[in-house]
Amino acid sequence: MQIASNIVILPPVKLVRMHVYTHRPQISAAVANIKKKGLKIGFVPTMGALHRGHASLFDFAQKNCDVVVVSIFVNPTQFNNPQDLETYPRDLQADLAFLEGINPEILVFAPGTTTIYGANVKSLDFDFAGLDSVMEGAFRPGHFEGVATVLKYLFEIVQPDLAFFGEKDYQQLQIIKRLVELEKLPVEIIGCPISRHEDGLAESSRNQRLSKQHREAAPFIYKTLMQAKALFNDKSTSEVEAFVENEFKDHALFNLEYFEIANASSLAHASEKKENEHYRAFIAAFADDVRLIDNIALN
Ligand code: AMP
Fold first, then answer.
1. What is the pLDDT of residues 101-115, one digit of tens each?
2. Which of UniProt's keywords are assigned here (predicted)?
3. Is 54 a catalytic residue?
């Protein structure tokens, strides 16, 4: 806006003043400095496109640790579908502004692929004792090896005391706990509850790719999970599964990929209910080409 010939008032510019590290030497120096002071590091690994679901993890980390480190890295080895990797939303400036709005003291690690993998962009091999052969693992071959590989590298760099993961990706959470055991990594894994929109849809970076029609209809997924939970009290697991499959058969907008009732710790398919065991229901469905997942504790 020009108010006199020699005075120009510029519109406000939003300056992001987060600490952003992109290379190993910088983040390692920052980590060493934090460790020297005896402070506790809480780590939240993400792939960016941050939303309130991620924010709920930052909140848990802040409440339980002295320093919070958030990584933003779209990990190529965990995508079994190259098109999914290509279309994954990326906007670092928007993510930094989002983080700054939460707490400008959060440290951000936003490496490039070479910083993490060098020239060898490949997954390592792990024995997840069957945790990776069901559900997401069955439909996304190689996905969990990719997730575990990047986390092993990130944990080695960030050296967190605690690391926070959402139950939104419940199978991933179980696999990470196993990874930490297998590799004897000195980090405690904390699972955090699923954050949802008011209409029940689980928050996800993929939701922004839903058409208006699909977004409006998407609470159907959570509603069906809630119905499954109610039925689980007095129906068999196969009856509950048949109910859900039927609900989806009649739905014009969503294609069910799987619905599964599994033991909450082994993730083994639950063909019968046993006393003193915990069960969860897991779902994956397509809204056009957008793949949505959700899950719920049944007992
Ligand atoms: P992502 O960026 O999708 O890799 O997710 C990073 C972390 O945020 C993972 O631990 C996810 O489980 C977690 N997360 C994503 N969405 C949600 C949500 N709606 N509620 C809780 N945690 C979530």
1. 999 999 999 999 999
2. ATP-binding, Cytoplasm, Ligase, Nucleotide-binding, Pantothenate biosynthesis
3. yes
